[in-house]
Specification:
With 216 residues, this protein is α/β, with parallel strands linked by helices. The protein is built from 10 helices and 6 strands. The chain has a 6-stranded parallel beta sheet, with helices on both faces. Helix 7 crosses helix 9, helix 7 crosses helix 10 and helix 8 crosses helix 9. 50% of the residues lie in helices and 13% in strands. The longest helix has 15 residues.
Length: 216
């Protein structure tokens, strides 16, 4: 990547922040530009500085991570959010997906998964770890219903949607289907319009609800 991806870390444990900085120190395209111990201070700084991705926990004193994500998504539409947390129960996972976080991995993850998550999110993708996504899949399977709009999707749009639900990035979808990156973006916009969904995370939730995901 030519331009470094600028990252802000928010967590109420300095040791955790230091650990993330240590893991990413040698990744030249990932640049940690700021760190905060509470959501309120981070939001104040976002009004002044430009960052590409926010890495945050959800359990913090004061404003919670969920509130933080909702505020970021309503105020900074292009800003990506990756959640790192120890929580993987269905209520928390559901709430994070509803808040439109771009990714969610557990704090006991390794360096490679963290880097993969950041890379996919940077490429307009999402990254919910298998442990996290399986919780959501099992929850919504019980309530699954096929929506009428699905019938309006073309075969190629269905394939693109399936790959989006498998969390392939735009470039990975293009490579897998032997089509151009711009064509993938066009398909994605058509799928968003037809399904009446506004975001990629919303598409994943739609896909889970309508059976476009594999069992975990």
């Amino acid at each position: 990547m030519e331009t470094p991806v600028k990252i802000m870390i928010i967590d109420d444990h300095q040791m955790f922040i230091d650990g993330i900085k240590s893991l990413l120190r040698k990744e030249e395209y990932l640049q940690i530009v700021s760190e905060y111990l509470c959501a309120e201070d981070a939001l104040e700084q976002l009004e002044k500085d430009t960052v590409d991705i926010v890495i945050t926990d959800i359990s913090m004193p004061g404003m919670s991570g969920i509130e933080l994500i909702k505020t970021i998504k309503s105020t900074y539409s292009n800003l990506k959010v990756l959640v790192l947390s120890m929580h993987n129960d269905k209520e928390v996972v559901s709430e994070i997906m509803m808040s439109e976080a771009d990714g969610y991995i557990l704090k006991n993850t390794g360096k490679q998964e963290l880097i993969e998550a950041l890379t996919r999110i940077t490429d307009n993708g999402t990254y919910y770890s298998k442990e996290v996504l399986s919780v959501m899949v099992n929850k919504v399977k019980k309530e699954r219903k096929i929506e009428a709009e699905t019938n309006e999707l073309t075969d190629r749009e269905v394939k693109v949607l399936e790959l989006i639900c498998q969390e392939y990035s735009s470039q990975e979808i293009a490579d897998k289907l032997f089509i151009g990156r711009r064509t993938v973006d066009t398909h994605r916009q058509n799928i968003l319009r037809k399904t009446k969904v506004k975001t990629i995370v919303g598409l994943i939730k739609y896909g889970i609800r309508n059976g476009f995901t594999s069992d975990f």
